[in-house]
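Researcher: I need the complex structure. Ligand is s-citryldethia Coenzyme A. Inputs:
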Amino acid sequence: MSDTSKSATLTIDGESYELPIYTPTCGPDVIDIRKLYGQAGVFTYDPGFTSTASCDSTITFIDGDKGELLHRGYPIEQLAEKSHYLEVCYLLLYGDLPSAADLEEFEATITRHTMIHEQMHNFFRGFRRDAHPMATMVGVVGAMSAFYHDSTDPNDERQREIASHRLVAKMPTIAAMAYKYSIGQPFVYPRNDLDYAANFLHMCFAVPAEEYEVDPIISRAMDRIFTLHADHEQNASTSTVRLASSSGANPFACIAAGIACLWGPAHGGANQACLEMLKEIGSPENIPDYIARAKDKNDPFRLMGFGHRVYKNFDPRATVMKKSADEVLDLLGVENNPILATAKALEKAALEDPYFTEKKLFPNVDFYSGIILEAIGFPTSMFTPIFALSRTVGWISQWKEQLADPQMKIGRPRQLYQGSGLRDYVDIENR
Ligand code: SDX
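Model: Output:
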């Protein structure tokens, strides 16, 4: 643990308690309250964990005020520009950028784990064709816990590494199969001669009846989307994976829990909800009505793709994504895309409106990603599955870090109980 020379004094009913303060490499100091209940007999109260550090980590740092996102110290802007997704996976999993030889070995390992057990194909056929691909992914990834028994012991470092490789490698295959199943097309097997992003696009858009050439610029844009979604410190789905794995649960089942949490529209489901909102708005002329609804306390409508628990300035990922949206639509010759025009007009209107600027509500990673994904040819239902496959490496990196921590304990929060006090059972004839 970092420097502990400082402490906080808490006084309750005349009794004072000293609580150690730790100063991290970056970010705010933290007060260690682990002994508080034992010493003072009180709990702290923080629903939604707005002021609570659930763990210590060395993987990702976010400065919400500066709009800064670092992966092992490297800024997301530099990684998006100069690196590629599998190299970022290596960085997150192993702690630093790989040598050329290490990267080649890692990529070869991932490439050779992209197929799923042939018997798992049957799981897809149990779903209705109109099942949301996220439902399919939760089910099929959870089912991996019944197939890969040589990589399910979370206490075995080598098994943890094999499970990591299998999940990073197989998620694109599972996501692509979920998409193919939903449109009634045959599954397309992964190909070892394609890189990670190109392989995913090929599995999604190729058909057995003809050759499918992956456009290298679209593939680069896809790879950049994977990189921008790779990890994001202790967000809701990562915290879900950490809490699930704190009981020693099967790693594949823990990732399935992360997928389930990511699905929500307040989290990873926002990219689908955002594009559907932009389509509903339809054109820039309708923006004032929707801005008014978003500000109306009596209207549950929110601007999807806006706001963030941590970023109280711009989301650096949204900045990169916006630039990529312009490039991809330009390449595809999608002139004057009405959705992009509406998105840019909405962003401008919101950023000029005191309600949003005072509440620090800026576009987040989900605001522009859907525009790119739709331009590439994905239906909105595939947006969150793509977020899930990108975030798998983040979930797994945080899972490995937690399991390697000798201080790890099962997560077991307490509560502020507001229910009935002790009372006796009342027989039904007396109620
Ligand atoms: C992701 O945590 C992560 O890192 C997540 C993520 C990742 O990479 O893992 O970054 C990915 O989930 C991005 C966020 C995607 N979600 C959305 O775009 C959905 C729309 N955004 C909101 O639902 C909201 O902003 C959250 C959920 C993202 C953050 O919610 P908070 O921090 O709990 O903030 P809040 O709900 O308490 O809102 C604070 C105020 C409220 O007004 P008051 O009650 O103070 O008057 O801001 C308002 C809210 O009503 N508000 C919005 C708004 N978001 C917040 N008003 C209109 N539109 C919005 N989008």
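Model: Summary of the prediction. Residues 157-182 form the longest helix (26 residues).
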